[in-house]
Amino acid sequence: MPRINSPEELEKVRQEILQKGTTCGKASPRSCISICAGAGCLASGAGEVIAAFKAELEKQGLKNEVNAKGTGCPGFCERGPVLVIYPEEICYLQVKPEDVPEIVSQTIKGKKVVDRLLYVDPATGEKAIHESDIPFYKHQERSILGSNIMIDPKSIEDYLAIDGYSALSKALFRMTPEQVLEEIKKSNLRGRGGGGFPAGRKWEGSRNAPDPVKYVIVNADEGDPGAFMDRALLEGNPHSILEGLMIGAYAIGAREGYVYVRQEYPLAVENLNIALKQAEAYGFLGKNILGSGFDFTVKVHQGAGAFVCGESTALMTALEGRAGEPRPKYVRSNIVGLWGKPTVLNNVETWANVPLIINKGADWFTQFGTEGSKGTKIFSLVGKITNTGLVEVPMGITLKDIIYKIGGGIPGGKRFKAVQTGGPSGGCIPEKLLDLEVGYDELTRAGSMMGSGGMIVMDEDTCMVDVARYFLNFLIDESCGKCTPCREGMRQMLKILNNITEGKGSEGDIGLLEELCETAVDASLCALGKSAPNPLLSTLRYFREEYEAHIREKRCPALSCKELIAYHIDPDKCRACMICLKQCPAEAVIGGKDRIHVIDQQKCTKCGTCLEVCPSRFGAVRKISGEPVPAPIPEDARTIVRKSKEK
Amino acid sequence: MSEILLRIDGKEVKATEGVTVLEAARSAGIAIPTLCHHEKLEPYGGCRICIVEVDVRGGTQIVVSCVYPVEKNLVVRTRSEKIDRLRKMILELFLAHAPDAFALQDLAKAYGADRDRFEKESSFCIHCGLCVRYCAEVKKKNAVGFIDRGTRREISFIPEIASKECWDCKECFPLCPTEALQAAFVWAKTLFRT
Question: Which residues of B touch A475 (CB under 8 A)?
Fold first, then answer.
């Protein structure tokens, strides 16, 4: 492919690609089968499905009339592999290779829908044919994620077919750097990585810094447990991130950019590198981009997996080749950053928003959202939720709508307890605050934070003390260990929490925890330490009674902390069926045929197998906490006399 | 570099632009406790004992004085109820590791820190990094460094370098606020193993 040397040439190339018909989406003259090839769907067999489609199209002689391709992730991971057939936008879920011949002959040739692969609404039983009819998608606003299913991330042609690089062309030829900056400022785009700092102000600081050498960086060091928003964009639409980065570089006057991406995302690294090569070949990177005179190059740097390297100054230190440790930000990194130069670092999702704002304008962007938070935000919805996956919602949507309308509520008839937002250093929000509108300031006021967009839903079986302990345990390994309040404070907090969950808590523990939190919040060096107490503080704020029950009554209200629970077989309900006796891995169930079973509490490892296997018509096993285990019934009272035998 | 005026603990202090609040305070005879600070080394901001309150942008912020640069008309308070409380906690956290260090005991007395507040884990090291940074920045040898991260972080001598460089130097030993015990101990142990 020859270099593109002007905006006119770019449009010509775009038209040629569209006429060739190899791309997907409504604009394509051919039918197209888009199969999600994101990490989640690949794990559930999307690779085989894609191969089966290619073979089947060949077999049925449709190879040149219908496209089939692996695309970026549309988000509905719960029901993968997911596919969409264009131009009708028919959406099939949980597709297996054996479904492929039927889809080709029925839907592609016969224009008939294969009913059993459609989404069925569990509440109404209604089937949804189109992607946009499925409740999971219907309540979303997918400005960024929406393109994923239309493009093969390894093909720049696919990106160009959906107007890719038109924002870059517009910025370079129809806008001055100042105008680009103004548009971003007007959009009030705030950092999607967690901090929520206004991108425009960050850019302006760098632009105005006197040093002529400046850098732009994509922070793709996504490290929150359970979060995969950036991954889906990197894997699914890498060009959109690069285009945003190029526009940012143009606005602030940078000539070099970096993408700092986790090594644990091999597909993201692969797709990014392919995208970079293609962008260079087409003339979107390198010298004299599109003939504009603007030069810009990008390098990919793979991180070694330290969570703290997602912190901007630690990331820059790591990029310079040193151990990733944060430095105090009294002089901001947009003034003194990478190698001491003004550096704009933004998250993957922030950069991906930039081309949209340039193309559609700040006014389009600000129509979504609350007073302080504009646009959309991608969340990874995980935990005890029916529809696990990635969701992109307008800012200002309530947590309730995300969890119930999009997420489909809590599975298994369980009751909602809390939602943890903002990653390991976010907070837990209780049921009474479910009407909270999602936004940076709103979440912070509730004791949590936006973070990068992790959203972990918890049900009634979750112990909130254990949740706080879990996240601290994560952070204690991921803290860099440089400053005292974070390293030593968390060490002590974790000890106390371990004690509480093991029934060794004492009066005064809560006060001491609060004091340790205060020290970490006020005196830590970086945001990791300052926000590390959030899970602890928010659970103390909303679920204090659970802490008190653990400490005072040695009781775990969620019946989850192993040291505080016991399993007991109700002698009146046990029918001596021998199931639990046989299944118990610790051989802790004493009994026999026609002998009521009793759990040997000394041997019991509290694995819960007996409760799981006890037939529901008996329901003889129960979990207890905070009360003494009833004494086993006497040996001579354990024999069951069966009614049938009495007769 | 121009001279600027700022206010520390109610006292007007003259300082050169670019210096830290700590340097400005000390030049005016105002004491701020430090543990990881050393004049020959780059500011580190690790121990956090030198925290002070500054009034910026209409609010009060807690910053480390060993890194925070002076600003024109900046108002600094080196002690307050809050600062004292935070310093006390930081000292108590240190005392779990080095309960008998003189430098810590003096400060503990001043801030009412309880040496037995937390269970003892006597590793001696308080991670001030003086030995590590002195060896890297002044001696340019990098014979000692930090390994691992989070609560598992510790100082460690690199045997290949230490066995050549350390015998005739040992300049890091007296820098250690916990009486060089840890540095000597780790160093010796490393060499014995090789």
Answer: 150
ipTM field: 0.94
Residues in chain B within 8 Å Cβ distance of A489: 89, 93
Task: Tell how many helices (H) and how many strands (E) occur in chain B.
Answer: 6, 7
Of the options 3.40.190.10, 3.30.470.10, 3.90.1150.10, 3.10.20.740, the CATH number for the domain spanning B3-38+52-77: 3.10.20.740
Q: Are residues A590 and A514 in the same domain?
A: no
| pLDDT tens digit sequence for A575-601 | 999 999 999 999 999 999 899 999 999
Identity of the residue in A306, A491, A519 whose CB atom sits nearest the CB atom of B89: A519
Mean pLDDT on B162-191: 80
Smallest Cα–Cα separation from A6: which of A163, A156, A173, A247?
A: A173
Residues A193 and A265 in one domain: yes
- A327 neighbourhood in chain B, CB within 8 Å: 45
| DSSP character at residue B16 | E
* Chain A environment of B146 (Cβ under 8 Å): 323, 481
A71 pLDDT more than 50: yes
Same domain, A162 and A272: yes
SS3 A625: strand
Residue range A425-453: average pLDDT? 92
B82 to A495: CB separation less than 8 angstroms, yes or no = no
Partner-chain contact B151 A484, CB within 8 Å: no
Range of the domain at A102: 10-140
What is the pTM for the complete model shown?
Answer: 0.90
Report helix, strand or coil for A504.
Answer: coil
- C-alpha–C-alpha distance, residues A357 and A350, integer Å: 11
Tell whether A305 lies on the interface with B, counting CB pairs under 8 A.
no
pLDDT category at A39 given cuts 50, 70, 90 is: confident
